[in-house]
Amino acid sequence: MATADRTTAQPPRKPRRFYEDLTFQVLAGMALGVAVGAFFPDIGKQLKPLGDVFVRLIQMVVGLIIFCTVTHGIASVRDLGKVGRIAVKAIVYFEVVTTFALVIGLVTINLLKPGVGMHIDPASFQTAGQNVHPAAHMTFGEFLLNLVPKSAVHAFSEGEILQILVFSVLFACGLASLGDKAKPVLETVDTISKALFWVIRIAMKIAPIAAFGAIAFTVAKFGLHSLVALGALIGEFYLTCLIFFVAVLAPIAWYSGFSLLKLMRYVREELALVIGTSSSESVFPQLTSKLTKLGVEESVVGLVLPTAYSFNHDGTCLYFAAVSVFLAQATGTALGWEAQLSLLAVLLVTSKGGAGVAGSAIAVLAMTLAATKAIPVGSIALILGVHRVLSSAFVFTNIAGNCVATIVVGQWEHAVDKERLHTELDNGFQPT
């Protein structure tokens, strides 16, 4: 029997040439985009739609993919107690890790002090700040109310990931309660999911073009000098992200029995893509597929990964902590440790429920600064020129952190095929 299996086994897949690798194509597109934006700025400014079209293609289906993934994963298990355990463990993990991220962000920015000495007059932002409209500070009651969509259609049409997740979990639990009667619906959901992933595979073919257009526009609009004008902040933030990887994510991965570096190599195409697009939403479908291929049960991936997109913003928390204190330093705003602890508490709330869309961090940052009632909201204008450079780092960190979280929670639930996990990580991702 074993002989027959070996006889019928398919031959090894021929390795792809380096230029066929999506990571290479995305990085090449970014390099070309920098060149076009720097030397042909008039052309570069016209290329923004290339990136926007790609992000919209992903946004077009990501809500439905979350619905299908969560519904099929939970309803297939039928054990609502297990669903509850997974959710509680995931939320606890997210809160602990994001708190570590905020503390690291605050400590590093206070030690390096990149904004001290800039002596920016807060009054100078009265005009500049008119284009930044901070949202009102959301109370805990409003946060709870915002979890439930006015209608399922509204959640999907507005792209509210957290609301889609809530609706999907409730719908999946309803299907699970029906037992075998729900099989036809589950088969339909699975079929729809496969069709949506086909759309994603087609969209991914233009990912290098999207990265090219996004970077070309950024360099053309703000100039190369914009990438280094606030070099101290950029260097501090990239160092902070590196410290988070070394001090938090790597030990968590090591303790859980897998290599963080191998995991990052496995999802390197997605990591490279978010550097160019600054949108974590653009890689959600691919991560769902890869994490399942790594041996994490579908029910865990279907619940933990979408939840992580709303609650586990490791990189974004680093960004909020660093930029908030930087702006206080730059404008001479007194911000003692008591005020910074209050800021940390605010960030633990405002960092939740983000949509993962490029640029959304600016709106949340404005809301955070408004909640502090100390740091001028208009001072956000200081970092607009380098926000794109910073967002590449924090979205990169978000994606890596979400992958680690999904595997760790899966292992807590004994829902990971460890042999398959190590085999896949050792061999690297091979497209099927």
Sequence-ordered SSE layout with sheet pairings:
Layout: H1 2-8, H2 22-39, H3 41-44, H4 48-77, H5 80-112, H6 125-128, H7 140-147, H8 152-158, H9 161-178, H10 183-204, H11 207-222, H12 231-255, H13 260-266, H14 268-277, H15 284-293, H16 298-311, H17 314-330, H18 337-350, H19 360-372, H20 384-412, H21 418-427
Helix pairs in contact: 2-11, 2-14, 4-9, 4-10, 4-11, 4-16, 5-12, 5-16, 5-17, 5-18, 5-20, 9-16, 11-14, 12-17, 12-20, 14-20, 15-16, 16-20, 17-18, 17-20, 18-19
What does this structure look like?
By secondary structure, the protein is mostly helical. It has one domain: Proton glutamate symport protein, CATH 1.10.3860. The protein has helices at residues 2-8, 22-39, 41-44, 48-77, 80-112, 125-128, 140-147, 152-158, 161-178, 183-204, 207-222, 231-255, 260-266, 268-277, 284-293, 298-311, 314-330, 337-350, 360-372, 384-412, 418-427. Helix 5 (80-112) runs antiparallel to helix 20 (384-412), helix 11 (207-222) runs parallel beside helix 14 and helix 16 runs antiparallel to helix 20 (384-412). Mean pLDDT is 78; it is low at 1-11, 127-137 and 353-358. Its main location: membrane. One of its GO terms (biological process) is L-aspartate transmembrane transport. It is found in: Cell membrane.
